[in-house]
Amino acid sequence: MLEVTYITLKVALAATVINFPFALYIGWMLGRRNPRGRLILEVLISLPLALPPVVTGYALLLALGSRSPIGSFTQFVFGSDIIFTWVAASLAAAVVSFPLMVRSIIVAMSAVDPRLERSARSLGAGPMKTFFSITLPLSYQGVIAGTLLGFVRALSEFGATIIVAGNIPGVTQTLPLAIFAKVQTGRTSEAFELVAVSVILAVISLAIHNWLLSRSSNRGVI
Amino acid sequence: MSSLGEAIRLEVKKNQGNFTLDCELDISDGITAIFGPSGSGKTTLLDCIAGFLTPDEGSISKFERIIFSSDQSIDIPPDKRGIGYVVQNSALFPHLTVKENINYGFSLTPKRNRKYSLEKVMEILDISYLSERETGNLSGGERQRVALARSLAAFPDILLLDEPLASLDAPFRGVILQKLREIFSELHIPMLYVSHSISEVMALAHRVAVLSNGKVIATGNVGILLRDSNAKQVADFASFENLLQGTTGSVGSYGQKFISIGNIRLILPDGRSDKGETDEILVSIRASDIILTKVRPVGLSARNVVAARVKEIHPTDTSLLVECDIGDSIYVEITNHAQDELNIGPGTEVFLIIKASSIVVLDN
Q: Inter-chain contact A138–B51, Cβ cutoff 8 Å?
């Protein structure tokens, strides 16, 4: 049980870390700017939310498999492709949790008054300085909340993971996959223990998430 | 005064939906007002100068240095233009204290380029006492002074002001107007002051450019607002106020407060005792609140009767504004009908009757 929990946390954490810089950048772009092709970008980002995770997983499998460009690259560098490794599980969790993360960040950033950023610019701050001294401090609660939401989603990822990472005990078997295996083989009491762990992790993350959101709405940031 | 040529020289076209800004303008040193009704393109013009809007074509230079040119593909970003921008709602950073707000641009300026200290700026704007405060509970006037200080502390070559008084109550407006004058006399930063209030423009600016439908229709000293027929069309004279600066004092057995403006003295309304013996203050008197007569009136309840000489008569679309010399200029609104009877002209000696209660002291 400890091992499963450890793998689950490792995979979800890695997924969140991979996602964070991209989510921040795209959240800023869609929340603060009005880029060309906004609609296409928004649809693309939200697609994993609307598709069955199994479909997302299959797409990832094709993208990462040994016959794909990415697959042959990893083959060349690491000597094998990353299918059926915990890295693949992380990537699957990352793709599926990305929309949730980015959508919260868009909401948080679009609530920042653009006049503040303009003021910062006319006071001599470049775009990066403006982002880190004005935009981010005024939206960080929403950003953290979105990140947590993405983390929670990554914890519970199942469909895409099982396709690209399989269900290998001690390697890629996360809590949802382990529960699935236990239920399949009729080991219900063991399944229950894992369910309890899942519930505890989810409750803690969601509690922090909601606490952050209520704090930021009190301050009028969201 | 700088001898580096025009502060701003621009020639821009910017299309925004069904509105087009099409401007050619030279702005020299001093305080220049961009005057025009709302929707005339004033803010669009400032945004182009500050670098927040990219003109479709044209060029903008600041003291002979090109900051935008469509021909040469030059578009210096806002943070590199050295142009300060103070907006109507102040836009103070809510997560920073007053001091941190003011320090924002200051800390981004290399030490060798700092022309004055943070303390000096806070002193001019009289906000040292606010230093450690959060921005959330400041009054409108305080917010605007902090915004001005923040802008000045970034050492701009030019300061753009977009209706900085529009959201303020009367007493605060006077303070900000005073402060803008002080800033100019102490730091000599050229200012571009956008306003739709003819009274403010006449009280503050040295020169004015009149904007209407995205085009500059008149430029010159502020007097053109009363003389130029194009400029007069966009000016709203109905609420014209005289904004006059003077020195306060007290006199007589009642200890009445008065203000000296030019070569006249006006008794102020009662209930103002917080000010010291001699203080520079700004007062507002509506042109329509002043009565003009040709003979010295006697037996009046109004406390203020002063002698003046007519300098010029400016017809507006509904009435006449009589410019009278009291050492300073004061404007009195009279009807065409009244003029038929009075028959005054430049040089006529007149008396002005001003009720103390119609004098609004613009100061907190």
A: no
Q: Cβ atoms within 10 A of the Cβ of B37, count?
A: 15
Give the mean pLDDT of chain B: 89
Distance CA B307, CA B263 (A): 10
Residues of B in contact with A124 (CB under 8 A): 79-80, 105, 108-109, 154
Q: Which residues pair with B10 in a beta bridge?
A: B25, B60
Could you read off the pLDDT of B224-270 as tens digits, one per residue? 888 888 888 777 777 788 888 888 887 766 777 888 998 898 888 87
pLDDT tens, position by position, A19-68: 999 999 999 999 888 788 889 999 999 999 999 999 999 999 999 887 88
Mean per-residue pLDDT for A2-22? 95
β-partners of residue B212 are B215
Q: Which of A171, A132, A168 is nearest to B108 (CA)?
A: A132
pLDDT band of residue A102 (cuts 50, 70, 90) is very high
Nearest CA-CA distance, residue A107 and chain B, Å: 19
Residues of chain B numbered 23-62 and touching chain A (CB < 8 Å): 50-52
Query: What is the overall mean pLDDT for chain A?
Result: 90
Measured in whole angstroms, the distance separating CA A113 from the mean position of its chain's CA atoms is 27
The verdict on A113 touching B (C-beta cutoff 8 Å) is yes
CB contact under 8 A, B52 and A116: no
Residue A2 at interface with chain B, using a CB cutoff of 8 Å: no
pLDDT band for position B363 (cuts 50, 70, 90): low
Q: What Å distances lie between residue B198 and B33, B204, B319, B362, CA to CA?
A: 10, 10, 16, 17
**Reading across the β-sheet that carries B158-162, which strands appear in turn?**
B83-86, B158-162, B191-195, B31-35, B207-212, B215-221
Q: Is B87 within 8 Å of A115 when comparing Cβ atoms? A: yes
Query: Bridge partners of B308?
Result: B350
Contacts of B93 in chain A (CB under 8 A): 116, 119-120, 134
CB B246 within 8 A of CB B260: yes
* Amino acid found at A189: S
In contact, B322 and B310? CB cutoff 8 Å: yes
d(CA B172, CA B168): 6
CA dist., res. B223 & res. A34, Å (int)? 44
> Least CB-CB distance to B52: which of A113, A118, A125?
A118
Q: What is the mean pLDDT of residues B21-44?
A: 91
Q: Measured in Å, how far apart are chain B's first and last C-alpha atoms?
A: 31
Averaged pLDDT for residues B299-312: 89
- Residue-wise pLDDT tens digits, B77-107: 999 999 999 998 889 999 999 999 999 999 9
User: What is the value of pTM for the model shown?
Assistant: 0.82
